[in-house]
Design goal:
about 250 residues; alpha/beta; Rossmann fold; 6-stranded mixed sheet; 9 helices
Length: about 250
């Protein structure tokens, strides 16, 4: 059965004066997939995410998120999208349960429903024993796990994850990647994963897109891109090699 596109852009463009941050971007993400969104700093990835979230308006073109226009229907988009930015914004003087209850209330989830969901989410991300501790005392890895719990509370259709493993040790990285896989497999949440950790992206992504200088220069399953650039299957070559091949060609 053909998968339905849950995110779609056509000729999406964002300029700041003379600087073009996103240049004529057209791509789709299918419902239920994990999409690895790659590119160096300044490539336009974060600007693209902000446009998909309705947090900044495009200069041209359009985007649809679950059939909604983020520019005109930003509130509707926010209701069905979860977002973990590079730096999670929790209230440091509140504990994990208090933060999640506040998030539930913002999403019109009453206590009669949210309290059980909060307990289940904290258990699932391994934070039950730390739930009463002020979040200001949390490590980066714990804050990222609390971000996963936030997504579980909200139960969105789509999750945008911006560098979710940045600064984590190998154990913390492995745990976050496992949670991301679980969100996709167990909760049927479409994942857009923006990361520089190419090894982890290769491990879990169904397809990848590579942005450089505001343009999408490669799009497809990793094995297809590996075959295209090296004539080899994915198992014989790393995503890092594929990424660097495209990057060097554009930069030459």
């Amino acid at each position: 059965m053909e998968q339905k596109a849950i995110i779609e852009t056509r000729n999406l463009t964002k300029s700041y004066g003379e600087q073009v941050a996103v240049d004529d971007l057209s791509f789709t993400i299918e419902e239920g997939e994990i999409f690895g969104f790659l590119g160096p700093n300044g490539s336009g990835k974060t600007t693209t995410l902000l446009m998909l979230l309705g947090l900044t308006e495009p200069s041209g073109g359009w985007a649809k998120v679950a059939e909604f226009d983020p520019t005109r229907e930003a509130i509707k988009v926010k209701r069905i999208v979860g977002y973990i930015p590079e730096n999670m914004g929790f209230y440091d003087d509140m504990n994990a349960r208090e933060n999640l209850r506040f998030i539930a209330l913002l999403n019109n989830i009453p206590d009669s429903v949210s309290l059980e969901k909060i307990g289940d989410a904290l258990e699932r991300v391994g934070l039950n024993e730390e739930a009463g501790k002020k979040v200001g005392a949390y490590s980066r890895g714990m804050r990222q796990r609390l971000g996963i719990a936030e997504i579980l509370i909200k139960e969105p259709k789509i999750a945008f994850l911006d560098e979710p493993t940045l600064g984590l040790d190998p154990d913390g990285t492995t745990r976050i990647i496992e949670y991301i896989q679980s969100l996709s497999k167990d909760n049927n949440i479409t994942i857009l994963l923006s990361s520089h950790d190419l090894k982890q992206v290769q491990k879990i992504s169904d397809r990848i897109g590579i942005m450089i200088n505001g343009r999408m220069i490669a799009l497809g399953p990793i094995e297809t891109l590996a075959k295209e650039k090296f004539g080899l299957d994915e198992g014989e070559i790393s995503l890092d090699d594929v990424y660097m091949k495209y990057f060097k060609e554009v930069s030459a």
